[in-house]
């Protein structure tokens, strides 16, 4: 069950990189910065975040509940939510913006790089 500590952040990172690349193609500012500074579209940006990461978040809660039953013979819902935030939500939030920035640098024409 410790494999979940690797698998869940990797899946969240995959979704974050995919969303960051999509943001770059659409010419959008990095996601975290937009959530913090653009109060007009904050709600829609957070809804988009939840759409991207919801399945991974729910799977992280389910896997942690299975782990808790196997290990402790009881389910601690608060712990499951904290673990899901740490393993699914945090990697997504930390990687989406840098993926956007890296994609913009990569796609920039060669004459602008020098």
How many beta-strand runs? 0
Secondary-structure class: mainly alpha
Helix count, per DSSP? 5
Helix content: over 70%
* Succession of helices and strands: HHHHH
Principal-axes geometry comes out as elongated
Mean pLDDT: 87
Number of domains: 1
Strand content: under 5%
Main beta-sheet strand count, sense and barrel state: none
Unreliable parts: none
Radius of gyration: 17 Å
Distance between the termini: 48 Å
Q: Which features does this protein show?
A:
114 residues, mainly alpha, 5 helices, 0% strand, elongated
Describe the structure.
- With 114 residues, this protein is an all-alpha fold.
- The protein has one domain (4-108).
- Helix content is 83%, strand content 0%.
- The chain has 5 helices and no strands.
- Helix 2 crosses helix 3.
- The longest helix is centred in the middle third of the chain and has 31 residues, at 42-72.
- The chain is elongated and about 55 Å long.
- The termini are far apart.
- The mean pLDDT is 87.
Structure summarized in a few sentences:
By secondary structure, the chain is mostly helical.
SSE topology sketch:
Elements (H helix, E strand, L loop, with lengths): L3 H22 L5 H7 L4 H31 L4 H31 L2 H4 L1
């Amino acid at each position: 069950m410790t494999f979940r500590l690797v698998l869940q952040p990797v899946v969240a990172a995959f979704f974050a990189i995919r969303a960051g690349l999509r943001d770059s193609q659409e010419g959008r500012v990095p996601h975290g910065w937009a959530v913090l500074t653009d109060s007009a579209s904050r709600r829609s940006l957070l809804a988009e975040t939840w759409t991207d990461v919801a399945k991974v978040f729910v799977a992280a809660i389910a896997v942690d509940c299975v782990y808790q039953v196997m290990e402790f013979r009881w389910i601690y819902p608060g712990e499951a939510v904290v673990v899901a935030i740490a393993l699914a939500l945090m990697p997504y939030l930390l990687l989406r913006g840098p993926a956007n920035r890296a994609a913009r640098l990569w796609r920039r024409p060669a004459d602008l790089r020098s």
